Fold this sequence. Notes:
Layout: H1 10-22, H2 25-29, E1 56-60, H3 62-68, E2 69-70, H4 84-98, E3 107-111, E4 116-121, H5 123-131, E5 137-141, H6 146-152, E6 156-157
Parallel strand pairs: 2-4
Antiparallel strand pairs: 1-5, 1-6, 3-4
Amino acid sequence: MKIKHKSLGFDELVKLIAYYKEKPEDWLKSIEPRWAYNTHSNKVFDPDLKEDSQYTFFLVDPSEIIANAEFGSFNKDSLFTGEWNNDSRIARILYYWENGFYIDPPTIVWSNIFKHIYFSDGRHRTKLAFFIDRKTIPIATDPMDFSEINRIVKLHLCIK
């Protein structure tokens, strides 16, 4: 994950993973995601997503992305998996959202070769939004991929 604020060290992440794993599902669902787009586009970290980039922001149901995007060996069936890469990213995202930081929306692309939607960034953010029961999340995609992606998942243009 691309971070524009203080990075968390190993020991901090170990504590955060334990902290969030103990929290009940309803408590996790009370955390409000903060996305760096639209009126908060000045908080975007990834230079590819800045105002003058090729990407356009859309709103999408994360359950549709979970069901239709290619995740490879990525475990999308449980929030915390016991794998450091997954659990540390989930804990970091929860921590940042809980503490008022904004995070870049996921970026998805269409592969003409494999005829699939892929993530270029943001699988963990999408999975977390799904697990905390969000019905829409912003995603960034190249407008040239819009038709193919919109055929599979319904994209709604974000008004600037």
